[in-house]
Write a structure and sequence with these properties.
single chain; 388 residues; Gyrase A, domain 2; six-stranded mixed beta sheet; 8 helices
Length: 388
């Protein structure tokens, strides 16, 4: 294993030295030493930069997998509700790993390379339990090779992302649409083997780029590219830390595992029923873990009395776990909340009783004091994905 990831008690990504160069403030996150913010910008400045220009996020701490072999698709269709046959080569879908009760072990992105090869990304904070879960499930399949790998995983996010990235590849990016990916080179930085996907976790247009790193030379190449993006485009590109990544995804109505998603919550309860395609909603095709419970919830809305929904408010921001009241009755709880730099008010995600309609005024228990909030449709900021 490449030593850089294990050079201290906390792991470091291949871009660590570059983060130091740009004045990063580090925090421990999921076993890694990760940049939360950079000295040149405040959290709010960083957030607004991504909404208007291009932000670079080091997400190399995420766990990257390859599933290969004749039974790779069958395994993925057991542990997720994805219909792998419906995916075209080099297209992706958001999905969820499911336990036997239909609870969410983790959320994930599945990219199909061909019928027997899949690239999958899962969360860094779920690394150990995901590996244990997949290993246990894979025992029932003989013709499959599952392995994980380390490397530079770089998210390039913002409305100017294509304009900037196009300078570093000879391939046109205009016809690379959201949810699609390809393998390409990065001019003089990385000759081949770069996996580029049009996706992200901010709600903005953008890309996630996987650069192979197996030695110091390859790590240096990825750092050179990261720094070139910043130094050669100073008016458009800046490194962005975890603090802004969280507020951006919250505005975009995206889930954070451990907050909106847990092993006790099914995708239907999480308002993610759309990750279960119609082709997998019949008893004969619903062969995934927890299918019985999930199909029951899809067919009988009374079995899911709460849904994931937004809340807006002013004053102190609501935090995870804050109780929600409506007409003096407890009706739900906050899962994530913060000030929205884009909107200038607090935004939060919650699990709320379905009887409380969008537009209703509710009360949020914040530090023992009830404050008004308004039930609001997600996302708070419209997504700007590049679709064909």
């Amino acid at each position: 294993m490449f030593r850089r990831f294990y050079s201290t008690a906390l792991r470091r990504t291949p871009l660590y030295e570059s983060h130091v160069k740009y004045g990063a403030k580090f925090v421990p996150y999921a076993g890694f030493e990760m940049p939360i913010q950079y000295k040149a910008q405040s959290h709010i400045d960083s957030h607004k930069w991504v909404r208007s220009k291009v932000g670079l996020f080091d997400v190399s701490h995420m766990l990257q997998h390859h599933f290969e072999g004749p039974e790779a698709a069958a395994l993925l269709e057991k542990i997720t509700p994805t219909d792998t046959s419906a995916l075209q080569p080099f297209t992706s879908t958001l999905s969820v790993l499911l336990n036997e009760n239909g609870g969410i072990v983790d959320d994930t992105i599945i990219t199909k390379h061909n019928d027997e090869k899949f690239y999958v990304v899962t969360n860094a904070g779920c690394r150990d339990k995901d590996l244990e879960f997949i290993k246990a499930e894979a025992k029932n399949f003989s013709s499959i090779d599952h392995y994980t790998f380390e490397g530079t995983l770089l998210a390039i996010q913002g409305p100017k992302a294509q304009e900037v990235l196009q300078k570093y590849t000879s391939e046109s990016l205009n016809d690379l649409y959201f949810g699609h990916s390809r393998i390409l080179s990065l001019s003089s930085f990385v000759e081949d083997g770069v996996h580029l996907a049009r996706t992200g976790y901010t709600g903005e247009d953008g890309f996630e780029m996987c650069i192979k790193v197996t030695n110091e030379k390859e790590a240096a190449q990825s750092r050179a590219f990261f720094e070139a993006l910043i130094d050669e485009n100073p008016d458009l590109v800046a490194p962005i830390g975890l603090a802004a990544r969280d507020s951006l995804r919250l505005e975009a109505g995206m889930c954070l595992y451990g907050n909106e998603l847990t092993e006790e919550i099914t995708p239907v309860e999480a308002s993610l029923a759309w990750v279960i395609p119609k082709s997998r909603r019949e008893p004969s095709t619903a062969t995934f873990n927890g299918a019985g419970k999930i199909l029951s919830q899809l067919n009988d809305k009374k079995l899911v009395p709460r849904r994931r929904i937004g809340i807006t408010s002013s004053g102190p921001a609501p935090r995870s776990g804050a109780k929600i009241y409506y007409e003096d009755k407890e009706v739900g709880y906050i899962t994530s909340g913060s000030l929205s730099p884009s909107l200038g008010q607090n935004v939060a995600q919650s699990y709320l009783d379905k009887s409380v309609k969008i537009g209703s005024t509710v009360q949020l228990d914040i530090r023992g004091k009830k404050r008004d909030g308004v039930v609001t449709k997600l996302p708070f900021v419209p997504n700007k994905f590049h679709k064909g």
